[in-house]
Amino acid sequence: MTPLTRHSGYGRYLRLCFTLSDLALFNLVFWLTLVMTDAAPAGDLKLLWVLVNVSYLAVLVRNRGVQHKERAILLDRVVADGLIGVGIHALFFLSLSEILSQSQIPLHLYLVYYGLMIVALPTWNVISRRLVKNFRRKGYNYTRTVIVGTNSTSERLREELASDPGFGYRILGFFDDACNEDFKYKGEYRGTLESLADFVVGHKVDQIYYTLADGSRKMQSVIKIADNNGVEFFLVPPADPTLGRGFELHSIGAMPVLAGRRNPLKNPFNSTVKRIFDFVASSIFLVTVYPFIYIPIAIAIKLTSPGPVYFKQQRTGYEGRSFNCLKFRTMHVNKEADSCQATPNDKRKTRFGDFLRRTSLDELPQFINVWKGDMSIVGPRPHMLKHTEDYSKLIDQYMVRHIVKPGITGWAQVNGYRGVTDKLWKMERRVEFDVWYIENWTFLLDLKIIVRTFINAFNGESNAY
Q1: Exposure of 97 in the CB half-sphere (CA atoms within 13 A)
Q2: Which of 59, 75, 313, 351 is the right S-S partner for 85, CB 3.0 to 4.6 Å?
Q3: Pairing assessment for the beta strands 407-409 and 376-378 based on DSSP bridges
Q4: Contacts for 3-10: CB closer than 8 Å, 24+ residues apart
């Protein structure tokens, strides 16, 4: 079998298989529910079996196999789609059963069924996504792709497309009027735009990505080639890496407009959900766990060095406003606390303070900041005022970090960018991760970061000092 025959035509069969498997899962879990609970009367059971399957149609219409069709999709989105699918099914199932049923159906049957489904469907979504990616890594279900342009944007695009073989992108080459001399992938240059149409036909191209920014006439000709051959066309505007993937499409009348900064937390519902979670979680922690942690730590701090239990430092918060960030004191009282970061062998640290830093226990008082509303559990880490003043002049997009509340932990921290920033590139990478988090926020992403923070704290972090 030649590579060209192992084509993306498998895709529709994959989506059909997983659609049927999803339907089977809804039925299997319903059968398990009946085994685990007292069954409803026989007449109602027959009706409910029908409604289980009819309600799945609403899930199918909403999802349309997106998680298996879209190639580069975040795991958080896969889980979220599963939870949304269960919610949609529950809405239709409960509504239809109440309208059509002739007798009362036990409430515990519904509770058990959807209690199981809320675990089963997201789990199966993750497993099936893994199966699809493994299938693609073996060379099946790929999509043939060409990139128009030989510039820095096309280089970054190629690297993203090829970053995971499980995405299933097969990059056939680049096209441009002339190949730039400093282009990384000269060996993959296939010719000028005049030769693109013949290449698309001869190699059965599935997708064209357009990265040029030199007028619409060339783009219109490429779109025409795509339309004439049933090929998907994607416009990739040039963008700095720190802008992430957060462009959002709007329109002014019939004119499409790309918003340069996507911020899901501007949505009142999202910000309310995040604040409720922060308030409830911090309240529970401060009332139950914190007193038992505070007492021994406070005693140890007082016994090991003179000074207060808490270290209060002015840091930059939401919308650039400063606030008093709380930590357990880990150093001897010193004049450089507000201008100089801790280093691995910092003489200012106490022996017990070094332990607090390595275990991240020194950050726990920030749950008080979360409860007050100055911080969130998850968000970009707040920096001291001097750092804000210095780095805002050196790093593009640095102040973007402050369009959301700072956090106790964050996306940059769980990816290894915490601790001292003794080199500019370290702060640049931290900013890049922070901006990505802001533009791609979901509640599930917050939960993922929290779990990874616990895992990192348990395993120990080399950058925590």
Answers
A1: 26
A2: 59
A3: parallel
A4: 3/139, 4/203, 4/204, 6/139, 6/140, 6/142, 7/142, 7/144, 7/204, 8/141, 8/142, 8/143, 8/144, 8/168, 8/206, 10/135, 10/140, 10/141
Query: pLDDT tens digit string along 160-206?
Result: 888 888 888 899 999 998 888 889 898 899 989 999 999 999 999 99
Torsion of CA 390, 391, 392, 396, to 10 degrees: 150
Task: Please determine, looking at this structure, whether the domain spanning 143-238 carries the CATH number 3.40.50.720.
Answer: yes
Residue range 140-156: mean pLDDT, rounded: 89
Convert 98-152 into a string of H (helix), E (strand) and C (coil). Answer: HHHCCCCCCHHHHHHHHHHHHHHHHHHHHHHHHHHHHHHHCCCCCEEEEEECCCH
Q: What is the pLDDT of residue 7?
A: 47
Quote the tokens at residue 220: 């219109």
Q: 259 — phi, psi (to 5°)?
A: -80, 130
Q: How many CB atoms lie within 10 A of CB 5?
A: 7
The C-alpha atoms of residue 168 and residue 16 are separated, in whole angstroms, by 18
Helix, coil or strand: residue 382? coil
Q: Report how far apart, in Å, the C-alpha atoms of 386 and of each of 29, 178, 317 are.
A: 57, 47, 13
Distance of CA 358 to the CA centre of its chain: 27
Q: What's the one-letter identity of residue 90? A: A
Gap between the Cα atoms of 127 and 18, Å rounded: 11
Domain boundaries, the chain: 3-137, 143-238, 268-459
Q: What string of DSSP letters covers 424-455?
A: HHHHHHHHHHHHHHHHT--HHHHHHHHHHHHH
Per-residue pLDDT of 336-366, as tens digits, reads: 766 677 666 777 888 888 888 888 889 999 9
Q: Measure CA 237 to chain center.
A: 22
**23-57 confidence digits (pLDDT tens):** 999 999 999 988 888 655 555 677 788 888 998 88
